[in-house]
Amino acid sequence: MKRYLLNPHLLVALIFISCLSVVNAQQELSAGFKKASTVANPQTLVFERSEGIGKGKHIVFIANDHEYRSEQTCPAMAKILAKRHGFKCTVLFGVDEDGHIKAGSAPVPGMEALKDADLLFFFTRFMNLPDDQADLLVDYFERGGPAVGIRTSTHCFNGQEGKWAKLNFNHEGEDYLGGLGEQIFGNTWHRERGQDHYGTNHATGALVTPVASAKDHPINSGVGPIHSWCGAYRSRPPADATPLVEVQVLDKLAPGGESVEEKPLVSAGWTRDFYVAPSGEKKDARVVYLSFGTSEDLHDEDARRKTQFRERLPLGGRHGRRNQTRSKC
User: Over 80: is that where the pLDDT of 183 sits?
Assistant: First the structure.
């Protein structure tokens, strides 16, 4: 059987829509596509197109991590989904007092976009937000909005004080154990209960493959081996989750490394159909979490060119269409 290489952030695109054809996120925006605008807020990007299977659906991306360049990945993914498939995509960033991107522990202006969001793409790490911004994020989860979490989003808050201190990754209270990461995505940064590094971060790469039991899952349809340019996490998926992919530590950072035998396969991502909102109320909502991801993973032209796929929507119908198409990258 022929195997295809797929980069991890394009795997995330599988979660959004069916019959996606992977394209080069850096190419010029074509006619009919509304270029990024910052009408509501000068620190916010909005991409949209008037036609496509995503028409009428709004995806909000929050890019606010210290380490994996979510501020590069999120606009690239937003361009793909808006230009090729018609979604309205709003990208929010952590910014400093001068309005420049400051990844991680920085305010995120424009969180009002979550009020009409159909899906949240969450790529964050160790945030602490002003209460009015945290309020808007909490409101999204209280209404049961679906979410895709990438890499460090399991430890998305740290140092949050006041009424939303329970969102912190190291919150040990039974009212919201493990904070937002554990209660929404199913893990937090915790060596015994959640996640920790597996291999040498930023020095060894990883090979991600579909779990055998989920090879026919719609999200995995057409997905072959994935090379990730960041070190693996050892994750412990919640008992209620459906495992999707697993990860093998390699002996070098670049593709082509050998498996590290003393580091056997561990979980690298899952999906679940509910989470616990900060109020403590269980919400029926689709969640997908992937424990890998860095902006370098979007550079592989061969991966974009060769991959064909189809999948299930987390923001609309239960199943994607079954035909596949191919386009240039």
Answer: yes
Quick one: pLDDT at residue 47?
92
Which of 10, 5, 60 minimizes the C-alpha distance to 219?
10
CATH (domain of 155): 3.40.50.880
**What DSSP string describes 10-66?**
HHHHHHH-SS-B---TTSPPPTTEEEEE-SS-TT-EEEEES-STTTT-EEEEEEE-S
Selected residue with higher pLDDT from 10 and 258: 258
Which value, to the nearest 10 degrees, does the dihedral of the CA atoms of residues 288, 292, 294, 300 take? -90
202 domain residue, yes or no: yes
Q: Per the domain annotation, does 181 fall within a domain? A: yes
Going by C-beta distance under 8 Å and a sequence separation of 6 or more, which residues neighbour residue 320? 17, 18, 19, 218, 310, 311, 312, 313
> By mean pLDDT, which of 6-15, 27-36, 234-243, 310-319 is the weakest?
310-319
φ/ψ of 81, rounded to 5, equals: -70, -35
DSSP assignment of 169-236, as one string? TT---TTSTTHHIIIIIS--B-TTTSBEEES-TTTS-EEEEE-GGGTTSGGGTT---EEESS-EEEB-
Tally the domains of the chain. 1
Encoded tokens for 267: 């979980």
